[in-house]
Amino acid sequence: MVPGNRSAASNIPMEEVVAPEAPASVNCLTGQGAPSSAHGAARRHRPAGALLPTRTHSVIGNAPIQRETLFVRRHPAQLTAATGIRHARPGGPARHSLVAAALLLGACGGEPVVPEFTGPANIDLALPWATATVAQAGGSADLVEEGLEQARDNDRLLSMLVVKSGRLVVEEYFGTATQEDLHDVRSVTKSVVATLAGLVIERGDIGGVDDPIGGYLDTLLTGLEPEKAAITVGHLLTMASGLEWDETGGFGDYTEWIRSEDRLGYVLDKPLVDEPGAEYNYNSGAVHVLGVILEQATGMPLPELADELLFSRVGISRSRWERFPGGFHNGGAGLDLRPRDLARFGQLYLQRGQSAGTPIIPEEWVARSSVPHYAWRFNSGRLTGITYGFLWWIVPRVPGPLYFAWGFGGQYVVIVPELHLVIVTTNNWRGVGAHAGRYERQTMDVLVDYIIPAFR
User: What is residue 405's predicted lDDT score, i.e. its pLDDT?
Assistant: First the structure.
């Protein structure tokens, strides 16, 4: 790894694999059986691993809502007299049930369906965040403060934001981080690319998840073997391309891929070691291929595509996307966003793809993305029963269920539908190397032990 190189580190492998109760796992996209965890453990991977106060007014419905920072941390000594907590910022009214796809859940080990719930009209994500205190949002200020104290022990944590029912109730920054900083969120990028895939499919530029990839790459590649050309968009969305790949520890193939001169060719020159769709294998390069397909299908670079179909519609006005030589952008781990805009992205999924009642993402796509496609489960620190969907990580069991985007070193966008809760964290991942998993667990453990329970 090259210290300080934003592309030199990606994701590290899961530290624990929990064998499924069934004798074999099932890919719920294809219905095909996959090898048991004992066979696949060595090749299944998971991502390893400041803001200034402002006041604005806007109107949601007929009621004017004041937006103000209740506490924004510039350094550990700062306190806000308005509350008993150190840092918080709130958002605007919004809750939504996440309607789960019961058939998919039933096929994946009989997990309980994500409960449907009713909430207020979803917020307009293009407006500034409305704010509230933790107590005003029905949470435990004491438990949140305990969690923040624990979080301060993480010397790499940069930000933590909590949105409850559409209002920003915690906004904490660490070190020199500020509200306007763009954060390199590593594999959270994958969940954004998955979202763009759903939007491009809805628009008709791609026929569907069963479309083979070969037809979108024929002007870029010559001699792509028929078996690889038959890999589908859905296989890429579920990390089941069948291509040989090992980015254990955030290194291995990822590092070699980043250093290669032909990043598309590096991925597709890999041999097929499994039938596409049969085996989960974490592969950042394959998601980059998906990003290339989106660019080829639409004729637009990923940054422009994201801005037109997604970002501009939900109030995300600043972003940065790593551009590779040759013109394509890193679809596997190349996106930088501000924490507040990561919260907008999470809130959009919580609101089932809508902003103030206007559809942004198809509701069906949100449901398909946020339910398991596999029967295997693994644990990471205090978070147990983790599995995978459409480039999102899923925890289908109570006291979840929840799902999240996960980037190397502790970049998280966590959505807890039954609590109407969105949580964002960012960490400084540069130079963390093989210790990334420690900071991931340290970050997620705070959410599991303190922040989420504070709103139950």
Answer: 98
Amino acid, single-letter form, for residue 146: E
Distance CA 48, CA 142 (A): 30
**Total Cβ atoms within 10 A of residue 54:** 13
Q: Which of 99, 98, 102, 78 is nearest to 88 (CA)?
A: 78
When the pLDDT of each residue in the chain is averaged and rounded to a whole number, the result is 80
User: Rounded to an integer, what distance in angstroms lies between the CA atom of residue 119 and that of residue 94?
Assistant: 7
**Count of CB atoms within 10 A of residue 28's CB?**
25
Here the contacts of 207-211 (C-beta below 8 Å, separation 24 or greater) are 208/233, 209/29, 209/233, 209/234, 209/237, 210/234
pLDDT exceeds 70 at position 74: no
pLDDT tens by residue, 404-448? 999 999 999 999 999 999 999 999 999 888 889 899 999 999 999
Q: Is-contact 391 403, C-beta < 8 A?
A: no
Helix (H), strand (E) at residue 308: helix 302-309
Token pair of 343 as six digits: 């919260």
Please check the confidence at residue 286 and state whether its pLDDT lies above 80: yes
- Domains observed in the chain: 55-187+334-455 (3.40.710)
Q: Yes or no: say if 124 and 355 are a contact pair by the CB < 8 Å rule.
A: yes
- CA–CA dist 149, 51 (Å, integer): 19
Q: Is the peptide bond before 90 cis (omega within 30 degrees of 0)?
A: no
Cβ–Cβ under 8 Å, residues 24 and 376: no
Tell whether the torsion through CA atoms of 349, 350, 352 and 356 is positive or negative.
negative
- For 208: left if phi > 0, alpha if psi spans -120 to 50, otherwise beta; the answer is left
Q: Is the peptide bond before 359 cis (omega within 30 degrees of 0)?
A: no
Q: Is the dihedral of CA 402, 418, 373, 348 positive or negative?
A: negative
Residue 100's pLDDT is 32
Predicted TM-score of the model (pTM): 0.77
Q: Are 42 and 7 in contact (CB under 8 A)?
A: no
The band of 398, judged by pLDDT with boundaries at 50, 70 and 90, is low
Evaluate whether 372 touches 108 at the Cβ level (below 8 Å): yes
